[in-house]
# Entry
Amino acid sequence: EEDPFKYTPVIHNYAATNLIPRHLGPEYIIHGAKLYSPWDPTKTEVTLVVSEWFFDRSLHLIEHLDDKDHPFSEVVVMVPPAAAAHDDYDLMTEVPVRTQHRGAPDFMDLCEADIKTDWFMITNSYHHVARHVDLMFTPGTFKPV
# Structure
C-alpha cells in the first residue's frame, strides 16, 4: 500500500520550538522555529546556585563539573545554617565555588543567593550538570531566554 504523504528533508516543522542554530538540520524551509543565539562566554557570565540540605550532597555535581561543557563561571552552594562549609572545592573543580549559609527557608534560595553575575540558574544537590548545556540568548542583547 502506498503512503499518501511524501516525506522530504527539505521542509521541517518546528512549530512553537525554541532553537539555536546548531539544532537545525539540512532543511531549507523551516516552519515555526524561533531562533536564539547560543551562549557566548565573552558576553554573558552565568552563576549556578545549588540548594543543599546537608553539606555534601552536592559534591558529585561539583566533582564532575569540569567534565561538562557548561556556561557556569561560578557556583554558589546554599547550605543550612548549621551545616559545615567545604573549604576544598578548589581541589574538585576549576570553577570558583562559594558556600553561603541560608538565612531563610530553602525555597527562598532563589531570592537569597548572593550572586555576582547578571544571570544565574538554580538547581538542587540531587541533580547533576548535563554533558553539554545549551543556553539560549536573545540575539543582540544576549539576555537568557
